[in-house]
Hints:
With 190 residues, the chain is mainly α. It has eleven helices and no strands.
Amino acid sequence: MSDKNKKRDIFNPYISLVERCKRQERAAQRELFERLSVKMFPVCLRYVGDREKAKDVLQDGFITLFAKLEDYRGDGFFEGWARRIFVTAALMYLRKTDVLRQAAQIDNEALQAEPLLKLEQEETAHLDADRIMELIMSMPAGFRTVFNLYAIEGFSHKEIAEMLNLSEGGSRSQLSRARAWLQERLKQKK
């Protein structure tokens, strides 16, 4: 391996593996699946809130990933590129199962968005990551989806509105309600 390839692989460790997968090497595909599934399963689980459904979404995500692997040109980190595929797979699952209907209904009611509640650090400091994940997964689907897209994935309300076919106000309202819901559950745990 040349020095240039070594440096490239240090900064983006999936590059060589992706190149092997593009050549249809089964061992590379298996390795990519094993390396990515431990990182992408929690992403799927955060969106759908159920382990068995998350496994289905993960499988759908990998089908899409391997089908689109030729589109990855090595620009940017592969894991980020792959993550978008899995988030999209989760959103497609939610749309297909009509779980996001509740979010659209709230948006259609034109509710005034409440000021966004901030989760206090001391409220979350004593919780471990598993407990926080459990709380997020137990949120109503519309809240959970917008919360994940905004607070965890970093999408803007405009982007979320386009993805979920909501208004920006509807996205803000869902996030505000998700934060209030989460804050209430955190208070109950004290």
